[in-house]
Amino acid sequence: MTDPAAVEPTTFVLRARHVLTMGAAGHVRDGAVAVVDGRIAAVDGYAAIAARFADLPVLGDGGGILTPGFVSCHGHFSEGLVTGIGETHTLWEWFVHVVEPIEAHLTRDMAYVGTLLKATEMALSGVTTVGDMFCSAPGTPAITPGIVDALDVVGLRGDVSFGPADVPHGYPVDRIVAEHHALAQAAAASRRTRFRVGLATIPSSSDTLLAATRSLLAETDRLHVHLHEVREEVTASRTARGASSIEVAARLGLLDAQTVAAHCVWLSDDDVALLRRHAVAVAHCPVSNMILASGVCQVPRLLRDSVPVGLGVDGAASNDSQDMLATVKTAALLQKVHHQQADVLTAPAVLRMATLGGARALGLDDTVGSLDVGKAADLVLFAEASPSMAFVHDPYQAVVYCAGTRDIAGVWVDGERIVAGAQILTADVPAILPHARELAVELATRAGLASELAVT
């Protein structure tokens, strides 16, 4: 086996006992992927790949499981410094006691440091692409470019948005639009990040903000929005505007954009029909839905009705970890216990949601989500030499139910290795931790959070 440190970063052969392509080739046993200049050049049995690409260095010892990089299609790096604080709150109580108090105090430095730590946590759990909505007050100067700076350091692929709300805060819409534009400019100059228009929720948006959002979508035809996370949201929208949030968004033309909608827990038949008609993708966030007691997303029904579904770790203050493997396992178990049906959501189905499903939700399935020729070499290798992965009866179930972050031998994005031996290679996390703690103390204190860190 070639020493990874001595290998050209983006050109190599990676072999494994099981290659789960989530694409046309399906499950390849004793397989390998050939990577040339950061793109997948071939997927086949190892013998065929070795013969065809004899000059390329070979990574992997022939054991373990190789999958596409995971795609987390919803989260909030804005919560990166306030983990583990709100478990006794339902969503709207959590808004009042955790999220809203910090929004006016977030800075670009906080955005950078929080993202650096949480993006690292994601990478260590196999995430290679992250969809994020940063929720804060609009800044002067702009806050959100800090997200892009951190993603560039860690090396993740990003689909980032600013998630504004102006009810009841009264933030000026022109400043909100300026924050969108600042994030878009930062993403355009980044390594692997692109911009998406964001909107927190329909009920927390004035008519002026909704109109501004529609105008922004004329420039960038991609939308990230929360829809029907809790029953209270549906009631609030119907009370204020005479229709559900999904109906309002559809009526205003917002759903004509390529839309990823977080949660979608409380859905009527008409809501599901609108999602399907507008090809809206759902970002299912099972851990935060459970912590905040929001309800259970109708995942099996959505999949049957051809509504695309991906997975999201959600925010660092509502999950509260950013461990994608925990999200994958929870997604399967939640549906099984809710429906009291063991086969309602199987390991292959939930692994597809974590890879190709998430890529489709973000409109990136032509680039990532499966191990197909021509796509980016976003890869995760699970080591065989571990107590939990030493023997694999079913590789799909091994990844979904057995694997932990300790088992991740390597993560590659565009063929660049960013994780080796369960350690991040791209970010100096120990060096940033003292400053991160200082920022967490500052934020907790200024926001008046019920935190051990808050200085009183």
Could you characterize the architecture of this molecule?
The chain has 15 helices and 18 strands. The protein is α/β, with parallel strands linked by helices. It folds into two domains: 4-68 and 373-424, Urease, subunit C, domain 1; 70-361, TIM Barrel, CATH 3.20.20. Strands 1, 2, 3, 4, 5, 15, 16, 17 and 18 form a nine-stranded mixed beta sheet that branches. Strand 17 and strand 18 form a beta hairpin. The protein starts with 11 loop residues before the first strand and ends in a 9-residue tail after the last helix.
Question: Could you give a short description of this structure?
Answer:
The protein has 15 helices and 18 strands. It has 456 residues and is an alpha/beta fold. Mean pLDDT is 96; it is low at 1-8.
Tally the beta strands.
Answer: 18
- Globally, the shape reads globular
Q: Architecture of the largest domain in CATH? A: Alpha-Beta Barrel
The CATH topology of the largest domain comes to TIM Barrel
Runs in which pLDDT lies below 50 for 5 or more consecutive residues are: 1-8
**What is the CA-based Rg, rounded?**
21 Å
Outline the biggest β-sheet: 9 strands, mixed
Q: Domain count, please report it.
A: 2
**Proportion of residues in β-strands:** 15-25%
Mean pLDDT value: 96
Q: Give the N-terminus to C-terminus distance in angstroms.
A: 56 Å
- How many DSSP H or I helices? 15
List its salient traits:
456 residues; alpha/beta; TIM Barrel; nine-stranded mixed beta sheet; five-stranded parallel beta sheet; 18 strands; 20% strand; Amidohydro-rel; hydrolase; hydrolase activity, acting on carbon-nitrogen (but not peptide) bonds; Cytosine deaminase-like metal-dependent hydrolase; Metal_Hydrolase
